[in-house]
């Protein structure tokens, strides 16, 4: 899409520092020559594929929560803070995925054009299997990048039509026409599904080693191959790469986006598709039983020390469907621990989010049946509240230090004490390992990883879609309902155990109330993982609810009604096409409202 990207890609493909792979070495000029694709240098084309993996947006934390009603930040240079406070424009867009994703798509198109020319290994049968797998990965990554483009840039054009982005399925060269119109949103969804079909038909469900006697377990789509040949291409060595299971999960994510109100005014069949695609993924993991059987893993996957320490490369804990590589570091803690623990307190949850957690009996705190006590607001609450949010008086860090966030407190952890203090009266606790020590005299790192997809996300997607398709207790052709999913997730969290979750029971026949509860559970379970910003937009929900906080003085709690305003216009439920692209290409239509 961008000629600058194309020039960059051309440089990557032509230059390498590995002198033993090319001839003559003095020129260091590596051409896409199929006659040069020997088994010894298949790393070169495989590097093209890895560039697609490197551009998956979920490789890193975005913390776009600070542009929503869930959080603020004390980092005044944060791009999402600027978006939320009125500085979001088509040429100043921290949520922009245009350049990144189209660069990745260009790499995948190059890979798809070259993959069959490569001698991946000396054995021709095994080489063909490698080609099938890598082609499947490329189709899957292209689909995932297109999904992220739609999430960030699809919207209503100035002509009133729901538009996606230009569809690119072949490598762009310098002689191609770059002035391409946007395809319709529905055509983009169809292309993603086509790519996922192409991935699924080539990829194994999971990367596993088979042993002698298991020849019958080799999928028939791979033809007559030996165990050794199969394992060379699809064995456990490749765990962590895109698989058939992952392709199915991506389809579920895409279907939920396509069914959502902002993109789907009246097609009920899209909700049915979204529910069924999510169910397919859940059923591969044991269905609803997987939610209740992996309680600790599902709730505190980020801090289960023994589970994380035992992770092998590419292996996943029960809660995680796909993740990036783990690393030993303390980056999240350095950014988000409170000041007395030597952190920068960057992400501050809002009172809005705190209020979204019910009491332990399952009732919203606004309901008289909840038993909520505003003078003791953190007692008898949903256990996830103190798991995910550091409230006043709770402990944190290697020494279980009590954190005082009160405005009249005596430490820098208190409200607005210093630049790194909380602005809301709360600090983020989720994602952080409390066994990290930031003290400069005895600092320690710990193992972390970033999920791409969690099974809880897919379960909540099923609940949302099933409720819209069939109502709270309807199942379609599946074995469980939206109600069943919500009951399992809430019980896993420890909600409503003493009263059979009376609140959930009271709304089981009300589609609208169930919709609000599902959205709230999604808000709680997935907080700080980069969902709220996109969820509010695809729901066509209110974007302008001010971020609230709490001021605690002499033990009295006073809600701060507007720690930070949210300045969004209605058209901002859709992100803009980059201003530079619209200037360059007359066929590229901007979304309504954006200049």
TrEMBL record:
Keywords, sorted A to Z: Cell outer membrane, Membrane, Signal
Gene3D superfamilies: 1.25.40.390
Domain RagB/SusD: 323-594
Domain SusD-like N-terminal: 59-208
SUPFAM superfamilies cross-referenced by the UniProt entry: TPR-like
Family: Belongs to the SusD family.
Protein known as: RagB/SusD family nutrient uptake outer membrane protein
Source organism phylogeny: Bacteria, Pseudomonadati, Bacteroidota, Cytophagia, Cytophagales
